[in-house]
Design a protein that fits this description.
44% of the residues lie in helices and 24% in strands. The chain is an alpha/beta fold. It has a four-stranded mixed beta sheet with strand order 1-2-3-4, with helices on both faces. The two termini are 30 Å apart.
């Protein structure tokens, strides 16, 4: 796993980090995944907008990032890319309710193998299904009643 954080909004930084991640995987002598933290790209996203608009905006961010990463790595040793990020906003409800700190977390995967019948695709899919389970359990803990005051 080559984990990279992209702090700049400059597209060249995403390209640079993708190439660094690919070299890191290559040096390991194994095949692997690239994980990108894209928090800076989600900083201006308002999670309180209607869901359709939010899904569209987040989708566009992921599409662009996934395209840049995939076109700047050759895929010989990279099995796939995990993209994730979050955004937060203070939400002022109507009436006498207290403001809430609202957080939205986003994730997307890009498989390099496109043929679903290949062993490589099946392996990547199995990994991501297991990761989904871990992700879901982590979110449940974050959003549990013990942490409700943070929402």
């Amino acid at each position: 796993m080559a984990a990279k954080r992209v702090e700049s909004l400059n597209p060249d930084q995403l390209k640079k980090r993708a190439k660094e991640a690919e070299r890191q995987i290559h040096r390991s002598g194994l095949r692997g995944w690239i994980a990108f933290n894209l928090d800076t790209r989600f900083a201006a996203v308002d999670p309180t907008v209607p869901e359709e608009a939010l899904v569209k905006e987040v989708g566009e961010i992921f599409e662009e990032a996934g395209r840049v990463v995939k076109t700047n790595t050759d895929g010989n040793e990279v099995i796939g890319v995990m993209l994730h990020g979050y955004t937060t906003v203070w939400e002022q409800p109507a009436g006498d309710d207290l403001p809430r700190y609202r957080t939205a977390m986003f994730q997307r995967r890009v498989f390099y193998a496109e043929d679903r019948t290949t062993e490589e695709y099946q392996f990547a899919e199995g990994f991501f299904l297991a990761l989904d389970d871990r992700w879901d359990r982590s979110l449940q803990e974050i959003w549990s009643e013990d942490y409700a005051w943070r929402m």
